[in-house]
Amino acid sequence: MQRIRSLVFIVLAATAACQTRPVSVVTPESERDVADLSPISPAGDTSWRISARADVQEHSYASPAAAAPIAQPVAVRRAPPAAAPTGLAAISPATVNDEPTAELLDDPEGPAILRAQVMLDRAHFSTGVLNGKTGQNVAKAVYFFQEENGLPATGKLDKPTYDKLVEKVGRTDAAVTYTLTEEDVAGPYFWVPNSVYDQEKLPCECYASALEMLDERFHTITDVLRRLNPTVSFVSPKAGTEIWVPNVEPFNAEKLVKTVGVKPITKIHVAKDGRYLHALAADGSVVFHFPTTVGSEYDPSPSGIYKVDGVQWHPVFHYNPTLYSDVPDSRPKATLPPGPNSPVGVVWIATTKEHVGIHGTPLPHTIGLASSHGCVRLTNWDAARLAGAIRSGVTIEFVK
Predict the structure, then answer these.
(1) Contact, 185 vs 210, CB < 8 A?
(2) pLDDT of 272
(3) Among 74, 100, 205, 294, which residue has the least CB neighbours within 10 Å?
């Protein structure tokens, strides 16, 4: 909790990179993360949709205890066997790799949902963090995957949609093994302090632990990794330890690379009400779908058409107290070092709109649930995928 409060504080500092008027970040309300598909209709998107076309125990009973002979036998009562775990408690490598039934896909959480999230991620329709739960980010990814593949666009994860995912990405395991390396356990890892002036002294805004690094590398959360690896201690992990992880393209914050194997991106479409970003090919097809955090009512993201003005990997962050209403102007400025826990994450995609960029975040679980100060936030792994596939001059359209 201490670390989350610290990271929320530095995310507030991202105002300096986005807008000149500060506003408090909205706290995510996970319990209310219900799917609302009303603002994600493609209506009004005809500028890029016109040519778009599709181019997933046997019971045993103990003998009765010894007793004095009686005339008639007595039936032995026994407690019923414990029910099989359900929901998130059912997540294990075996259950995640099982082919799900239609009933399991209809569950609000559990191994079938995690499996579908992995497959959507592999199909480039991101649900943000892989947490094994349904919600608005999953519904949006499903909605647009269905639309792109000629299925009724309902946002509901059903068997026909799952079968189409299998067709697109293959019938593959959703959990695979990964062996920790010396580099993984060595770090460096630094706890993020509360004060920006203490953060300024850090050699990097690095991960706090190997566990946090593994969360991001495999696009997931600690709870999922612990459920996949109930006998593994992540407190002091050892090189050579084999763990189960979601089967996605691993993200390495220290080895950011060019994205390959996708169509050239000619346009970026940011839907502010829908809270999603589409990277589009020349034929209008969706190259990437990403859930996003966008501006608030008081510090909105812009409207209109702009362009990509460049990409900066591992950006430093300039903290300016004069941009914050709740910080005395007399306090000194600070320059925070780069790293995945920087307020702008691992990459800054500059736009031709001053102070507005597309960037990563140290709080991936807030994507789609919180508000920014005008910028477009993505998970670090999604931001890196986008940055590795675009070039300067690509059009960015912000629509309501």
Answers:
(1) yes
(2) 83
(3) 74
Condensed to tens digits (0 to 9), the pLDDT of residues 226-270 reads 999 999 999 889 999 999 999 999 999 989 889 999 999 999 999
Please say whether the beta carbons of 167 and 187 come within 8 A. no
Tell me which architecture the domain covering 258-399 has in CATH: Beta Barrel (2.40)
Nearest-angstrom CA–CA distance, 324 and 242:
46
Binning pLDDT at 50, 70 and 90, where does residue 117 land? very high
Range scoring the smallest mean pLDDT among 76-80, 111-115, 146-150, 197-201: 76-80
Q: How many residues does the chain have?
A: 400
Element containing residue 215 per DSSP (H, E): helix 210-217
The three-class DSSP label of residue 146 is: helix
Alpha helical stretches, state H, 13-134: 15-18, 46-49, 93-97, 102-105, 111-122
Give the angle subtended at the CA of 136 by the CAs of 368 and 42, to the nearest 5°: 90
Measured distance CA(6)–CA(48) in Å, rounded:
40
Local structure of 296: helix, strand or coil? coil
Q: What is the pLDDT of residue 223?
A: 95
Which residue type occupies 66? A
Q: Where in the chain are the domains?
A: 86-250, 258-399
For residue 70, the model assigns a pLDDT of 41
Residue 196 vs residue 350, higher pLDDT: 350
| Angle between helical axes of 111-122 and 159-169 (0-180°, round to 10) | 40
Which residues are CB-neighbours of 70 under 8 A, at least 6 positions away? none
DSSP string of 313-355, one letter each residue? ES--EEE-GGG-TTS-TTSPPEEEPPSTTSTTTTEEEEESSTT
Two tokens at 174?
A: 């959703």
Instruction: Quote the mean pLDDT of the chain.
Output: 80
User: What is the enclosing helix (H) or strand (E) of 310?
Assistant: strand 304-313
